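Issue 218. Parser rejects a valid record. Input:
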Amino acid sequence: MTAQEAKDFLVAQVVQQATMEGAALSDVEKRMMYFTESEDAIEDPSALNEEFEAQYDTGEYERKISGLFRAAYKRLRKENPIGVEKWKEYVRFLKKGDHYILVLSD
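Output the parser choked on:
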């Protein structure tokens, strides 16, 4: 398992939830869920953060994405118990590092 795999799964669930709710996410909003300052960053964290902050209010973004995380988790609990176990496993794995997605998913 890698941080990328874990984030891909979690981000996919949030994107699916947003689509179901009619709340499309921009490219920057999706990329920001991958944000980390650790060595496994998929893009320059400073550049990503600068691009994000020029377009979004962090507090509003965190509320929006956290709500989508809660709804996605609730949907998975109802529809896909195996998906819930994967979710929990990926979150446990990510807790070993410093990943912004953990702030958004709590």
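Fixed in the parser; the record now loads. The helical segments are 3-20, 27-32, 45-55, 58-79, 81-94, 100-105.
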